[in-house]
Amino acid sequence: MKDIGYRIKCIRKENNLNQTQFAKSIGISQGNLSEIEMGNINPSAETLISLRQQYNVNLNWLLTGSEADDGTTYKDVSEEQLLEGYRKLNDYDKLEIIEIVELKNRLRSNV
């Protein structure tokens, strides 16, 4: 089984970044990143949070290597796409989407 350092390296490679660029983006030194990728040290909680925020990483996958059921279920692919897209929005845009959904529901209930 691959360790957390390997998964972090995969994230970096998927984003076509060298260690210096990637380390800077998550707020650690290149040397620290190198040690994490080699499996010599584990990332701090702050580093994990930064990875989640910067690269939209599933923390369960990052920590365990598997996408265990987190209790989230989707009725269909479009619902999953909507939720994943919503999670990437800023707070203002999220509120706007909520208002649109509420409006659509009010309009439908009046039909």
Describe this structure in words.
The protein is an all-alpha fold and 111 residues long. The protein has two domains: 4-64, 434 Repressor (Amino-terminal Domain); 77-109, no CATH class. It is 67% helix and 0% strand. It has helices at residues 4-14, 19-26, 30-37, 45-55, 59-64, 77-87, 91-109. The protein starts with a helix and ends with a helix. It holds the Pfam family HTH_19. Residues 8-62 form the HTH cro/C1-type domain. InterPro entries: Cro/C1-type_HTH, Lambda_DNA-bd_dom_sf, TransReg_Diox_bact_type.
Keywords:
single chain; 111 residues; mainly alpha; 434 Repressor (Amino-terminal Domain); 2 domains; DNA-binding; DNA binding; Lambda_DNA-bd_dom_sf; DNA-binding transcription factor activity; Cro/C1-type_HTH
